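Good morning,

Both structures are done.
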Amino acid sequence: MDSVASALAAARGGAHRVELCSSLPEGGVTPSAGMIAAVRGAVSIDIQVMVRPRGSDFCYSEVECAVMRRDVLMARQLGANGVVFGILDLNGSVDVRRTAELAQLAAPMAVTFHRAFDCSRDLFVSLAELQEAGVARVLTSGGRKTAAEGAETIARLVTAASGRIVVMAGGGIRSHNVGSLIERTGVREIHSGLRSVVPSSMRYRNEEVSLGTGCVREDEHYTVDEREVRSLLEAAGNRARQR
């Protein structure tokens, strides 16, 4: 999520934690210090801060990694409970050295390796490497576009993890499919955006001007739907109680 309003909606809906980022159309990048501080002051649930210096791939230069190190320290100083990042090497494998360095720098915050994991060459090798690098949790759709499509692989990852690292499912999860996903995979944690379009409150807009690249409209934005959060958690909880 990328706003105080979304964090508040998630908290009211019963979310246990939020992942805070900016630039959602790019898949999320590091939020500003001001945003982290504002969200920390607004909600009491856990805040996981994305540390991603730019969009596109997950193979970063040393300069970009230096930025990431600074952002990890910033998140910790501003009261975040965890950081979320993903670093791959040129060959599509986990950059174990840099991942371990950031994990050590983040302590005692929890570290989640985001869906850069799904872009790695071998998910099961990556899972073992992340465990050794000090990562607490990996977010995955099983290497597919959605978690539902990758459910079989997610189930195998849960088995391979053996409780040593948390496998969290994410990607297209909603209240109508979360129950079957939990049953099929055995995951205990899920990740979902649950965003709704909110029209701009501005009464005037110059239709001849667009400040984005074409994928973002200035007359609308996204925010988390509190009701969807509550429905998702209710559906997930009902399935967990049946197991």
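Second structure follows.
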Amino acid sequence: MRLYLLALNPTDSVTEGFLPAAARLGLDVTVLTDQPEAHRRTYPETEILECDVRDFRAVITRISTHHRPDAVFTNSDHLQTPAALAAAYFGLPGKDWRATLRAKDKAQMRRHLAAAGVDTVWSAEIAEPVALDAPYPCVLKPREGVASEDVVLVEGPEDLVTRSKEILDRRPGTVLVVEEYLPGELYTLETLGDGQVRHVLGGFHTELSPPPYFIEERLVFVPAHPEPVVAQVLAQLDALGVGFGACHTEFVVHEGRARLIEVNYRAIGDQCDLLLARLLDVPFFEHVLRTHLGEPLPADLGVRRDGAARLEYPCADRAGTLTEAPSATELTVEGVHLAYRPLRETGERHDLYRTNRDYLGVLRATGTDQPAVDRVTADFLAAQRWEIRP
């Protein structure tokens, strides 16, 4: 059976998650990408074909002139709609392209939820710097952005003009969304469905950098959110038509009310999916691929429920060259498994991005006791050193 996997840049989710899972399932994999050399360097044993993967017509043509597909899949935010349209063209299981579009287009998501009577959030789209009469403070972000990039809190009309000009100068032609700030604690809900059955895998409590930016600095695993909160989030996902394959949903809870921040219709990234598979002790990546092959999910995934986990992302706080940093490490301390992976090489110079591109590394910690996980994590990080010189 042949799996076509659509990708932009190489990611840990694909390299360490989905490709090994495809091999375990005995699938023949063809990666379609607009960055073929980067993928060939990362996994030279896999077939890589160049393709304008953002264009569903190019994807359909490339597949049609190669081998017959059994599944078309992507874990990229940007490529969910092209993948869904290609899967539909070939009569293969996949996500509803309308749902992928609603999830990707943050303005359309707000409009659709309001029209469905599920939730109404004040929002507007702008293509140039403009002072709006809005319920400040507001959040300004690219309509189809990812990873908190160019997401910023604005306090008033003048701040909106200044911030939007900065973003549009960097990203000409981008459409921005201005929406009311939703107060509350930030959480995620991780789900896996086959179109008929949907499993809730738990989620994370996310801690952010101080405003005006929204960098995710650490996540703590939440085995089960309160049932009323889960019900509210799932109702909003149902209204969007989201329920096939993996989905990573970000939401806030304020006075018992759950409101969506964004829906990432894919597996959670930044190595959280790798942690999740280990913590829950399930073949998560295989399950995701099986749904795209048309196989139903089991009624019971056999998820392990006694896990505790934490992820930490040491961040650069200035532009410059990374001159000292810990190397990759994996060890067990007091029953807590630690896996540290650097995300930036020493000797590299970077600007300060105010997004997850500032991450210097990621520490995954798993165990069965949250206080022990927290303590061991803090001790490990305190013993490390990252140095950035101008």
